[in-house]
Amino acid sequence: MAVLQSNREKKLKLQDLNSFITCKLCSGYLIKPTTITECLHTFCRSCIVRYLQDRDDNKCPTCSILIHETNPFEMLRSDQTLEDVVYKLVPALQANEEEREREFYMQQSVEERKKINEEPKENGTNAFDSTDYKLASKRVKLSGDEYDSGENFHRDDPQIGVCLERLCDNSVQEQPIRELVRKYIRCSSRLTIAQVKKFLKVKLDLRTADQVEVMCNGEIMGKDHTLEFVYMTRWRIKEGSLLTLQYRPRMDFL
């Protein structure tokens, strides 16, 4: 009987979980949860960004730990898992938030159109006709945070230097995979190992990205590992040194 009772589902009230899914800055439910990597405290993205912009000490609002001496925004990470949990626990929150964003960005688009319409062209016509408005409206991301110019290419991400070295097999005279002409690259620290393998596929003229394995300190890296994760957990060398990854042909063990 005791076993049966222990296996029963325990229902929790939402108010019992509020302390885990609310923002300490606005006291509302977490919208686009963003975590400080130095202390793992989480806030709404807009709340923590506004907080850091308005202050000069670059400290966490909860524990006052120094986030970063010069650029605290580099130490902020979105928490998609927590966002999914919040939306599951709070009915209609996601729909309401998406509607608010849609109204906000549509209003921004209308105000932009109104402002440009007030500036006449030299020939006396409006500088912004209906065709231009339709094209400009496509730039607005109704479910995002900013204009989608399509030209960012992760340049705003924290950057990391990487050395890609071929792992040679001394037992054979001719290596199955050639060495990169330029083995040093600088890229976003949020790149995954899968994307590194795609890069190698292009540079080495391979049929598929799965033909190579990427390793760090002799350990094969998972395809979903980011370079930042590899650097923090696998690259056990002096801090500040260049992250070195080795690549080799994929080895299938029977």
TrEMBL record:
Lineage top rank: taxon: Eukaryota
Cellular compartments per GO CC: nucleus
Main location group: nucleus
Family annotation (Gene3D superfamilies): Phosphatidylinositol 3-kinase Catalytic Subunit, Chain A, domain 1, Zinc/RING finger domain, C3HC4 (zinc finger)
Subcellular location: Nucleus
GO molecular function: zinc ion binding
Signal peptide stretch: none
Keywords of the record: Metal-binding, Nucleus, Repressor, Transcription, Transcription regulation, Zinc, Zinc-finger
Xref: SMART domains: RING
Name of the featured protein: Polycomb group RING finger protein 5-A
